[in-house]
Structure prediction request, 429 residues.
Amino acid sequence: MLDRELIQNRGFRNVFTNGKATGFEFQLRMPNYRGVWGSLIDGVTVTVGDQTWDSEVPQWTLQGREFSITELRASTDVRWQLDEPAVITVPHEGGLPAGVHHVSVDIALQAPYIPVEFQPSIFHSERKVTIVS
Amino acid sequence: MSNLKYGVSLYSYTGDMNTVLTLEDAMAEIADLGATGIEILGEGNIPNYPEPTTAWIDHWHGLLSKYGLEATNYGSWIDSRMWRNRDLTVEEGSVMLARDLRLASTLGFTSVRPKIGVVSMDLQPHPIWEAVVERNLDLATDLGIIICPEIHGPTPIKHPVVDEYIAFIERTGSDNFRLLIDTGIFQRAATTAHQDGLSDEAQEEGWRKPLGVPMSDLVDVLPYTAFIQAKFFDIDDQLVDQHIPWDDIMKTLVTSEWSGYLSSEYEGDRLPYRSLEQVRRQHALLRRLEGQQRGW
Prediction:
């Protein structure tokens, strides 16, 4: 089972390249009532404390494959399913300190069956999550 | 006598699915209502859609059998704005619909509702719809599936969109294309239910505003109607629904001798477990009203 919150408690951690923290990642549950093809994902804006990363910045890992948002918008064969959280990776030199962080997200999805004037749909969520070490 | 059957769409349990409910939990809930039908969203409820594993397909059929449920309607999408630089072609849309028809058939469904991208504020479907459906009519016939687009607010029944669908039925003479009515179009009072992802402005346009379609319009299209999604937002402790006129709807269905499924679509606030409680209330209300109409 996944957390009811969109931001999952499990999976919040720093990511390392050659032993150095180069960013952090966390998992997001699909906010919509259906899963969607990757091209309908329009990005996620991420805020941790007083720092914000624009929706063009985070990398997406879906179904084991990593995409920039530009790649995802042009994709044809990957999905964000209701039962498979996305891994969001945010580049951030040095990573985040271990401890509790207030994380908030605005997830943008395109729904072609809703008039384009009202698109994209924006799903906001925030919660406190912890980097263990 | 006509025969009304009761079911539940897993759409009702949005937010609860995969967080507090497994598919089996949901089926146990539906069976406990005395309902016989389960409606799903292909892209929502099928793990690894559009290619579920054989093991999952077996699991699905096993659960239908265990809980005495039949697969009713399968919701699909034809996302006409799939990419930013161009619209979906007829060929691409046809392939998508064919894929969903086959998958729906594998899972035992008897109707498929394609939700087609729109090109206007009053939900005119993208013009590819007609060719996409027409190319799939023979396949639908072979599989024994009815393709039924959804008549959903803010589009009423007396509207060019519905006229086009009915003209298509009459032109093709096909038994495999019919209407699906979402009871949200009969809404008579505004709802405060919040729809995640939508601005206040969009919600005002699409959901909160009561459309109040009259029952006489429903009577006119019932001969073309294959399935009813029993959309609702809130039913109180006295089994009163302030928004949807169930008494009038039930009277119309019974008087018109319509047969088919009423499939719950709870669309109220998404608090954990609230959908489960609300769907039970709706089934209690609908059974009571049917009993009153038929003098049971």
